[in-house]
Amino acid sequence: MEWVPPAAFGLFAAAVGIFCSVLVANLEPQPEYPKLMTDLMRLLGTGIAICGLAIGTVFLSAAVGAYVG
User: How far is CA 32 from the centre of its chain?
Assistant: First the structure.
């Protein structure tokens, strides 16, 4: 049962990464904000999504290692 906490955290981190990537994909430029602001928000959101997916992958692989080992 040592694999449950890392698996739960890995799934949560991956879900946050996927949720953030969906939010960034649906980001539309607004007329009252400069275009640079939208581009920076898209860049920041993409970075958060990639980090969430990477952390989720690391924790899920650790959970698999704990389950198998």
Answer: 28
Quote the longest CA-to-CA distance of the chain. Answer: 56
pLDDT of 16:
96
With 0-12 CB in 10 A as exposed, 13-18 as middle and 19+ as buried, what is 17? buried
Q: Which residues contact 37 (CB under 8 A, 6 or more apart)?
A: none
Task: Let me know: does 66 contact 5? Beta carbons within 8 Å.
Answer: no
- List the chain residues with pLDDT less than 50: none
The structure tokens 């990477």 sit at 54
Query: Which residue type occupies 51?
Result: C
pLDDT of amino acid 65: 95
